[in-house]
Amino acid sequence: MVESKKDSNAEIIIKSTDPMALRLHIISSKISSEKMIKGTRKGFVKSTGGNIEPIKSEIEQFLKAFSEDIKKGDMFEFVATEKGVRISKNNEQQQTVSSHAFKEALFGIWLSEKPVKTKLKKKLLGS
Predict the structure, then answer these.
(1) H helices of the chain, where?
(2) Alpha-carbon distance values, 121 to 31, 94, 110 (Å)
(3) Which of 61, 112, 69 is closest to 87 using CA atoms?
(4) How does residue 14 score in pLDDT terms, banded at 50, 70 and 90?
(5) What does the angle CA 30 – CA 10 – CA 48 come to, to the nearest 5 degrees?
(6) Domains plus CATH for the chain?
(7) In the predicted model, is pLDDT for residue 10 greater than 90?
(8) 125 versus 70: which is more confidently predicted?
(9) Pairing relation of β-strands 84-89 and 92-97?
(10) Distance separating alpha carbons of residues 47 and 105, to the nearest angstrom
(11) 98 and 84 in contact (C-beta within 8 Å)?
(12) Secondary structure of 64-92 in the HEC alphabet?
């Protein structure tokens, strides 16, 4: 059994190699595949300070998770382990991206110095 640790330091969490997960629950019918891809691309740009080139192929691989129609109620899970980031939609594993730099950028979308939503970052960190 893996012991769960809490930490409110976003930088430590982003850099960590400990297993961690984020769940994205779609609660609006206004979210489309196109909007999700566009927003996620922007998130990666912000998370990496504009330097997406080193992980560009991993980002493209990841974005395939949003290529099918997205409906209200869909659930995406991003589970980081020592083997990479496992991406699932509605409990069906889609792929694994095995790059720690990608994992840092992905979790940085929500936890970096320039997160997509500052209030959400605070909630994720329990602050």
Answers:
(1) 10-15, 33-47, 56-63, 100-111, 118-124
(2) 20, 26, 6
(3) 61
(4) very high
(5) 65
(6) 19-116 (3.50.70.10)
(7) no
(8) 70
(9) antiparallel
(10) 6
(11) yes
(12) HHHCCCCCCCCEEEEEEECCEEEEEECCE
Label residue 2 by pLDDT band (50, 70, 90).
very low
Q: pLDDT grade, residue 70 (50/70/90)?
A: very high
Rounded Cα distance, 48 and 52, in Å: 6
Closest Cα to residue 20, out of 5, 30, 9, 34? 5
Rounded Cα–Cα distance for residues 124 and 5 (Å):
13
Strands 84-89 and 75-81, bridge-based pairing: antiparallel
The pLDDT value recorded for residue 21 is 93
Entry pTM? 0.89
| 99 in Cβ contact with 58 (< 8 Å) | yes
**CA-to-CA distance for 116 and 110, rounded, in angstroms?**
6
The C-alpha atoms of residue 26 and residue 22 are separated, in whole angstroms, by: 13
Per-residue confidence (pLDDT) for residue 123, from 0 to 100:
86
